[in-house]
Design goal:
Length: 280
């Protein structure tokens, strides 16, 4: 003779706490959980025999019976048992233990061997003695060298001629009238002045090193322009020699102003000659 099956448990939901707390308690369909909420509304299973809500009708798992992981029964990793990387136990990358890219140990992301090495800042230049000379014939020749082209420019006096071209005999300045021996000498002097400036800057650089100036302004800047070398050289010398070294800059300014005045006067005279040639 078969026995009738027991009552079917109600579905999961909020029900009256059978312990009598007056709050709602979550029933997961098999056992009471530790989740509480507001007092429940009367549900469809309030009158099911064996599952009455209220303090007098306990559920299938009364509160005194702990579940498989109740708070009173420790689990497989209780809090008192440290894990593999507990705070008191150093892990594979703990401080003091080198990791993949630790200093001194190259790793997959170590600095590239082609990276520029860190360079310490250069120490300040020491001052030179008061009796050490800061001027020499090389720097003065370099300062006055542009006057060579200015002098040749003054001696260039072309004879302008007008030629007539085209069916309408349009008057045009003869390009050959510009050409003269002085003109070609003027062109040649510009190349000689440039090459001489580089040579003089190199000789002046060596002279400063022999006189005790540490890391003087490099002579290679003269390839860019002689003015750049003169200004840079004067500033460096002024730093190591008290109240000295800036005179070449002031002289260079005078040379530039004189060259501008002479060039302006000469060009004005040449344009006047061209205009008078057209008027004849």
């Amino acid at each position: 003779m078969s026995q009738s099956p027991g009552p079917t448990p109600p579905p999961a939901g909020w029900y009256q706490d059978p312990a009598g707390s007056g709050r709602a308690r979550w029933w997961d369909g098999h056992a009471w959980t530790d989740n509480f909420g507001a007092p429940p509304q009367p549900g469809p299973y309030a009158s099911v025999p064996g599952y009455q809500s209220g303090p007098a009708q306990p559920g299938p798992y009364p509160p005194a019976q702990p579940g498989p992981y109740a708070p009173t029964q420790p689990g497989p990793y209780p809090p008192a048992q440290p894990g593999p990387f507990a705070p008191g136990q150093p892990g594979p990358f703990a401080p003091g233990q080198p990791g993949l890219d630790a200093p001194g140990q190259p790793g997959p992301y170590a600095p590239s061997p082609y990276a520029a090495p860190y360079r310490q800042p250069l120490p300040p230049r020491p001052e030179i003695k008061d009796e050490t000379p800061v001027y020499n014939p090389f720097i003065w020749t370099l300062v006055f060298l542009p006057l060579v082209s200015i002098v040749l420019f003054l001696f260039w006096n072309p004879t302008f001629r007008v030629i007539y071209i085209g069916p309408r005999s349009t008057p045009t300045l003869d390009p050959a009238s510009w050409l003269s021996p002085v003109y070609f000498l003027l062109l040649l002097s510009s190349f000689l002045v440039y090459g001489g400036s580089v040579l003089l800057a190199f000789l002046d650089y060596q002279k400063l090193e022999r006189d005790g100036v540490v890391r003087p302004f490099h002579w290679a800047w003269s390839f860019l322009n002689a003015t750049v070398y003169i200004v840079g050289r004067s500033i460096i010398v002024h730093k190591v020699a008290k109240n000295r070294g800036l005179v070449p800059i002031w002289v260079l300014i005078g040379v530039v102003v004189l060259s501008a005045i002479v060039t302006s006067v000469k060009m004005t005279a040449m344009f006047s000659s061209i205009i008078s040639t057209y008027q004849q």
